[in-house]
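Design request, tokens follow.
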């Protein structure tokens, strides 16, 4: 059996929605809208960065927002395109990297959810991403994003292996966390049915864990005001027991 090493999310896209079926995107969408209301933002247009298969993009558009989704992985975008094909929604999808994408439009709100930010593997990349977002934010626009925490990785993923078997695909998901570099490495092996055979694909994902103080100082250095850093889905300040922290920032 031949093995193909593919870029992150290119083959993962095949099974992504099935593997993430327990994610409550409706709750996530409602939380984002409540943040819009809290900060008196009525976005005419929204940019959903690292939009993946478009689950959140579609929910936002179904609330009447005009949404542009950007993702680095064509595989994920292809799934998103299939999902929006028969929907009468104001959605534009395009390929691009969250760190240096270019769109000839400014947005009233820019989102980057589900710890996509953690794929910026060093402070330089994160700073570049913040600058790229700033170029695309309209005046008084909101930048809303979340990060996964060290506690979440150590408690739920470090040295753990997950696997599932389905009729058309199987996967093995192994995780390791390096405390000294704050890097989480995920090794994904997929077996995807191709006729009577299964093709093997591998992806390696790397995510960097950031302290709130680091994110805060990089936001400040790139011209943002940090409005809040909340424990996910709440309006309570983050704590050391937070598994995910949601940031809302605004350009000064």
């Amino acid at each position: 059996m031949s093995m193909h090493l593919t870029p992150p999310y290119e083959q993962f896209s095949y099974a992504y929605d099935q593997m993430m079926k327990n994610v409550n995107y409706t709750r996530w969408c409602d939380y984002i809208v409540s943040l819009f209301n809290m900060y008196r933002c009525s976005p005419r247009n929204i940019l959903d960065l690292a939009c993946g298969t478009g689950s959140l993009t579609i929910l936002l558009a179904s609330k009447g927002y005009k949404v542009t989704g950007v993702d680095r992985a064509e595989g994920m975008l292809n799934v998103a395109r299939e999902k929006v094909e028969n929907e009468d929604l104001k959605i534009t999808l395009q390929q691009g990297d969250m760190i240096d994408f270019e769109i000839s439009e400014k947005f009233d709100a820019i989102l980057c959810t589900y710890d996509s930010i953690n794929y910026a593997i060093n402070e330089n990349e994160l700073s570049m991403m913040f600058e790229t977002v700033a170029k695309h934010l309209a005046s008084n626009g909101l930048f809303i994003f979340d990060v996964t925490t060290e506690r979440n990785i150590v408690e739920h993923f470090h040295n753990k292996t997950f696997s599932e078997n389905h009729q058309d695909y199987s996967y093995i998901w192994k995780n390791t966390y390096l405390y000294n570099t704050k890097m989480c490495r995920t090794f994904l092996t997929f077996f995807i049915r191709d006729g009577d055979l299964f093709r093997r694909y591998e992806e390696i994902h790397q995510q960097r864990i950031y302290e709130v103080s680091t994110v805060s100082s990089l936001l400040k250095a790139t011209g943002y005001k940090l409005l809040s850093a909340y424990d996910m889905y709440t309006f309570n300040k983050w704590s050391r027991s937070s598994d995910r922290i949601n940031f809302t920032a605004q350009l000064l």
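Comment from the thread starter after seeing the answer: thanks! Residues 36 and 43 are 8 Å apart (CA to CA).
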